[in-house]
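notes to self, project folder thing:

trying the whole complex as one job this time. last attempt i did each chain seperately and stitching them together was a nightmare. two parts in total, labels are on each line so i dont mix them up again. if this works i'll redo the older ones the same way
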Amino acid sequence: MDILFLVVQQTMFFSIPLLIVALGGVFTERGGVTNIALDGMMIMGAFTSILFINKMHGSMSGQSLLLIAILIAVVTGMVFSLLHAYASINMKADQIISGTALNMFAPAFAIYVARMIQANGVQQITFVNTFRIPKVPLLGDIPLIGGFFFRNAYITTYIGLAILVVSVIVLYRTRFGLRLRACGEHPHAADSVGINVYKMRYAGVVISGGLAGLGGLVFVVPTSTQFNATVSGYGFLALAVMIFGQWKPMRVLFAAFFFGLMKTVASAYSVIPVLNTLGISSDVFKMVPFIATLIVLAFSSKTSQAPRAVAIPYDKGSR
Amino acid sequence: MNTERFKERGMLFLRSQGFNRASASVTAILSGLLFGLVILLISNPSQAFDGFLIIMKGGFSTGAKGMGQVFYFATPLILTGLSVGFAFKTGLFNIGAAGQFVMGAFAAIYIGVKWTFLPAPWHWIVALLGAALIGGLWALIPGLLKAYLNVHEVISTIMMNYIGMYMANMLVKATVYDSRKNLSMITAESSVLPKGGLDAVFHNVRSSGTLDYSTVNSGIYIAIVVAIIMYVILNKTTFGYELKACGFNQNASKYAGINEKRSMVLSMVIAGALAGLGGGLLYLSGANGRQLKVIDVLAMEGFNGIPVALLGLSNPIGIIFSAIFISYITQGGNYLQSMDFVPEVIDIIVACIIYFSAFALIIRNIITKLLKRKKSEGGEA
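result (full assembly):
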């Protein structure tokens, strides 16, 4: 039973950042801009917020520190995503190229700054994890469910689930959501009824940047005690989760749990007795999430429901 | 009269597509370098200009040997650049060069270490062919997924990068592992690429009078020849035309009787073979050269193929020059460590260059507009 608890808790640590970042992907793509720079935005968000936690060590700790760090991660991601928005909306640049540039920039920048400001040119930023909630009061005592979701938890888990609820409401129940989706499906039609396509697309990209930045922090905090300018390709996995989730928030949730479970198997196989005795190389387990992604994509891409106008720069003059 | 005609010709050249495109690349490079200078200035104002000078001096900082190293590290970049560029030309975006590269590298090392029954020239030739074959196979999967199951190649090649990295680590550990150094074994002497006369030029003389050789070898010749072959295939053959046509418009190609699915898969396989060959060329360089590291980091050579291809405008000949340029400033970045700088500033510069090269379309339009205005002004006067 303890192992089952551990697996579920681990799955949450891996799934929640995927969920948050993939939801970011949903917002930008629903608005018509593709964003393969999610990985870079995660790195930037994680970098500034972990650096903040590192600097605040001793003077602050616990949930208040984490909440401020979250705020910093979100703002960093938003600011960084403006570069992508400017290139792909104003400059009508190839969005894949712009995204690739940002993906290259982020880890180089994180390593450069870390080595310039830290003693002895160390590139890893260490932090002390004071954020784990051993047991949520009351809820943690519920049999089974308490063990799965309310022990050894992080506040970020609940924030992630809250973001899911808010995303569903914003996308499907507000004027903004309807307009955003219109800009991703048929921007000319949206324009003809007076919607500012450029503004809406900016909004989509910046929301994705904020969520990706947050996702970076949420990924690093429970799974490590240092940040080494990488989020292990999570931004790309999040893109796959988004496609697997067919650009719909609730499906994205299931996709994120599926990948989170795969990732848990990859990282925790040594404590799962059945898998440990198989004697398979650790490298095979590390491949599992990526192979699973490919297989899932192979089955789910044929009937893709991607927004029609995604990755096409909007030009008022074109027909 | 003569000067008039000369001027007219000059204007024609300025308005030609080639010049227009190249100037967009140069603008991107200059903007990227400028940004790099700003980063240096912010982080350490007193040494910034000296540091920048070191970057600009590139491989020359350590004389002939340093320049040799520039060509040694340019060799895999030419191949991964060709891989990405060829895919671009045929309408595909191959981010998977890193995975294809590392799988090709493993194949070459495996053949280089194990197949010692082959005599000298054949050994490295077979090793290179093996590298290209495995690289091609690694790209076959995303090719098939794209053509038949509509999986976007950007996502599938990224997944194949990670799978390739772990696969190569596993295979190296299982077969050709030097566990003391955590590297792959050094390949047999017969599998090492010949120097091809380059050692006569690219070496430094130590104070003791002995020669300090660069690692550069005939791999750079092979890379250049492959680039020329790719140029010919793309521009002078029906096969290349068909592949390009599919990149422009799948439906039109299908209507014209081209098997568009087959073309797509073939384009991907060729791109993968090029990247795989790049892996072979880098790692078949003997004890002084590189060995494959067993770490969970994607091969940088693969990713740097993207800026190389973009700067070279996906033109195989342009790619030769852009690869040498990227290798040149990367070498310069390595010498930065002698000062209080971190070599990652080069990656920042390269990232900025790609970012600005994404603006190519707008920059081109601006240049054309400026030239047009000049012309109309001249007409009025």
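what i see at first glance: The beta strands of chain B are 177-178, 183-184, 203-205, 211-213.
need to look closer tmrw
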